[in-house]
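Schema walk-through. Below, the input block comes first and the output block second. Nothing else is stored per chain. Lengths vary across the set, and this one has 429 residues.
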Amino acid sequence: MKSDRARFLSLTATSAALALALAACSGSSGGSSSPSASASGGSATTTKAPIQIGISLSLTGDFSADGQAFQRGYELWRSDVNSHGGILGRQVKLIILNDASSPTTVVANYQKLISVDHVDLTFGPFSSLLTAPASTAVARYGYAMIEGAGTAPSVFHVASNLQVHNIFSPSLPVTDYMVPFANWVKSLPPSQRPKTAAYPMANDPFADPPVQTARKILQSAGVKTVYSKIFPEEEADYKAPADQVAASGAQLVVLGSTDVPTVNAFMQAFEQQHYNPKIFIAASGPDQGAAFIKAVGQSNANGMMVPDGWSGNYNNALSHIMVQQYIAKYGGTPSDINADVAEAYSVGEVAALAVKATGGTDNAKIITYLHSGVTLATVQGPVQFNALGENPKAVGFIFQWQNGNFNQVLPADASGSVKIIYPKPHWGS
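--- output ---
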């Protein structure tokens, strides 16, 4: 809920302190607080009971589109694993609860999944806003949280993770999302480089860090900042900052967005003001495939840019297999596949490799293994976790809509990249 977002930071700090205090009292470690053998991993190599994985997802509420895409990714991975005999001879069972996009509900869900349902493992929810409190909740029980959508600094630096280091994300850290883009702008000849830039940002821990990193790089290249403000993430509040950006006349717009509606609102306002920046990149939204095109129209999408760690055309053998599986089940084309699907799928891949390597579902052993420096292969590319659970090896790309196609454009020398359309075409062209 929107009101929950305003209270997120205080909620997270309180939850973290409470969880750590409870953990100290219970002396829990390795996920062995559950009375079931499978939850502690004590007999994972001998029982044929399914491996139960607990997940809370935003199937309704603000993050429902992404939550449902994550559900598809998790279920696609489960189907693939089970069709090949499961993990260590055990089938995988997903227990998915709806958190309605609420930080309060997500904590209650994971507490139920572990203490009542006695799941063996936990996978993360969608968004950094929910992952931080969720990871604190599972830390109380000594569980690892392998997750694909909580990559903001606020997640990795939550108090519980700094103590027990139980968070692991194979996805690209959000801080690095726009680095390839900013470096490209910086590399342009001075005569071609935009002179001014605007940085409107939604009040969100995912949306802001990549924009702020890009701003530092671009300012060092001499690109003047003419607008930089954080606005409330309420649809009614989008028009005012959009009109202010249009009035600034900035040649470059770097939008800290979280979804399609945010980007669409800015695009509509810009078109109404007859304002067309030379470059327009958004942190999230244009990567939503068919959902983005349906909202903004194919002609207006032309030239829009977005960062991401994956696309349906990513040149990766494991990714190609997943894409074929997805299309066989849901239809469409590679460009229609939401990157959330790959993020969720890669979480499953990491978990499967950890269970196989440790011989079971003992969370303490899994945490130790994933912090051992081992490099793992996923649909998103190579994964190697640092002390915070970030993946410094994650690959970062920039994509651009070009005449109806979602094309990889950066890094320019990466396999599959095509030439950037610059400047961005006028609206509707």
